[in-house]
Backbone:
């Protein structure tokens, strides 16, 4: 239940941010790809602040929900991504390159 409450409050926060900024994309986190590990569905991202997770900027490894995300991504690419907390695991559920 705690997870659901958190999810709902995150959704409300995202909706609020989208309303005030006029774009849903603003809710995504920014980062730069450091390493791609397709075999293990993992990606290392040097990311900016992630407000939804209360996380300061850092470089860390994320699990990705779909290995196909990693097809068009390589180290050095700038990306925008969404990440959800699943227990102690952080999973990237959306990932797109930024020009
Ligand atoms: Cu982090």
Residues:
């Amino acid at each position: 239940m705690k997870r659901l409450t958190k999810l709902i409050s995150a959704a409300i926060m995202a909706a609020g941010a989208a309303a005030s900024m006029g774009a849903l994309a603003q809710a995504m986190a920014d980062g730069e790809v450091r390493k791609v590990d397709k075999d293990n569905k993992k990606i290392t991202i040097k990311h900016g602040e992630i407000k939804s997770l209360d996380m300061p900027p850092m470089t860390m490894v994320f699990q990705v929900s779909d290995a196909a995300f990693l097809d068009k991504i390589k180290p050095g690419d700038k990306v925008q991504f969404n990440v959800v907390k699943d227990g102690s695991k952080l999973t990237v559920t959306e990932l797109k390159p930024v020009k």
Observations:
- The longest helix spans residues 2-21.
- Helices lie at 2-21.
